[in-house]
Amino acid sequence: MRALVIYESIFGNTQAVAEAIAAGLGEGLGEGAEVECVEVGAAPEGVEAGREIIVVGGPTHAWSMSRAGTRAGAREQAKERGQAAVSRGVGVREWLARLSKRSERGYAATFDTALRPRAWFPVGSAAQAAGRALEDRRYRLLVEPEHFFVNGIDGPLEDGEVARARAWGAALVARRRASATVPRRPRRRPGERVGEIVANLVGLIVINLYALWLPFTFGVVTDDFADVVPALSAFALLTIVDHVAALAVGTPRAGLVADVLAAALAIAGTAVVLRVFPFDFGAIGLPWIALIAHGVLIFALVVGCIRLVADLLRFGFHEARALADG
Ligand SMILES: Cc1cc2nc3c(=O)[nH]c(=O)nc-3n(C[C@H](O)[C@H](O)[C@H](O)COP(=O)(O)O)c2cc1C
Fold first, then answer.
1. Which of 61, 81, 150 has the most ligand 1 atoms within 8 A of CB, as the residue to mutate?
2. How many A from CA of 264 to the centre of ligand 1?
3. How far is the CA of 215 from the centre of ligand 1 (A)?
4. What atom in ligand 1 is closest to the CA of residue 62?
5. In a domain, 111, yes or no
6. How far is CA 135 from CA 37, 110, 258, 324, in A?
7. Are residues 8 and 91 in contact, defined by beta-carbon separation less than 8 angstroms?
8. Phi and psi at residue 93, in whole multiples of 5°?
9. Ligand 1 centre from 72 Cα, in Å?
10. Residue 13 Cα: closest atom of ligand 1
11. b/e per residue, 33-57, with b = 16+ CB within 10 A?
12. What average pLDDT does the chain have?
């Protein structure tokens, strides 16, 4: 069996983890193992046929894989500390972007180095993002993306992390031999979740400032709008908490549960508006628009229900796979 480890590292911590993982892979594969551990700038474009396991890892920068800007900042910090950066060219983000989406199906694993999360504040994950990129390129992940923790921006790694990386590498071999994989990353990306948090926050503010804008709707939005404000505010607030919790926990299961809850809350909000229907299109002499508005709300309700069923099924499949994989 042949394995390939591709890593990116500025201060050397991810490099140390990658080398330990490669050693673990070699240990797991035993006699005749062929394991290469390559810095991403020196890595070939694409993965040659016959690599049974590929492992990709890099440092978490700004909640995800590094970008040219974050790498430049990190290299500057390394220079100030009198240290030469390990990776001086592209990062794993660029290497993954160049991988063909039409490659042979393969087995992969991803890891990152990151600061340990403090309280509820999310630290993000390069490994999650790299995992999604690999899944988009027909790879199946052998295990959930893994973090190895550093004590500070430039390290060092926490005690025991190198040994843990070695054991993690060896364990990948057993997973590959059993062709055991984990469910695909959640559909929603962290950026989309942040977008929904912002959208709900804006909605919450707009809804609650209704006294300011109601007079400017020429009577189309009626005083009954006050009746929907408490319910819509509660749903928007719960949706925000839901997405923040999913980002903070960061696991696929938390993401799937959050999606189910968000879909249910969206249905509840639409149902409240449909029931109260705080609109009077007769005020502008176009009463027939009420019919269209009812149609749009009912359509939104149906789409919301379909989304809820799809999210529930996705969660069910995830749990079934998790059970089957032990
Ligand atoms: C520009 C920059 C942004 C960072 N952003 C994060 C972050 O969002 N979350 C986190 O846990 N660590 C963050 N870190 C800390 C890195 O994860 C840490 O520097 C890395 O694990 C060290 O790995 P390396 O020695 O291989 O470069 C950041 C570091 C830099 C330089």
1. 61
2. 36
3. 50
4. 8
5. yes
6. 21, 11, 21, 20
7. yes
8. -55, -50
9. 12
10. 25
11. eebebebbeebeeebeeebebbbbb
12. 92
The residue nearest atom 20 of ligand 1, judged by CA position, is 59
Closest CA to 241 of 201, 206, 202: 201
50: alpha, beta or left? (left if phi > 0; alpha if psi -120 to 50): left
Q: Where are any strands of DSSP class E within the chain? A: 2-7, 34-39, 53-59, 106-115, 139-141, 146-150
Statement to judge: residues 159 and 211 lie in one domain: no
Q: By residue range, what is the domain housing residue 25?
A: 2-177
Residues 159 and 15 in one domain: yes
- pTM value is 0.72
Q: What is the pLDDT of residues 238-252, one digit of tens each?
A: 999 999 999 888 788
Residues 17, 162, single domain; the answer is yes
Q: What is the pLDDT of residues 87-103, one digit of tens each?
A: 999 999 999 999 988 77
> In whole angstroms, how large is the CA radius of gyration of the chain?
25
Distance between CA atoms of 204 and 210, rounded to whole angstroms? 10
Residue 117 DSSP SS3: coil
Domain end position, chosen among 119, 154, 177: 177
6, 67, 115, 147: residue to mutate for ligand 1 pocket, most atoms within 8 A of CB: 115
Overall domain count for the chain: 2
- Residue with CA closest to ligand 1 atom 6: 61
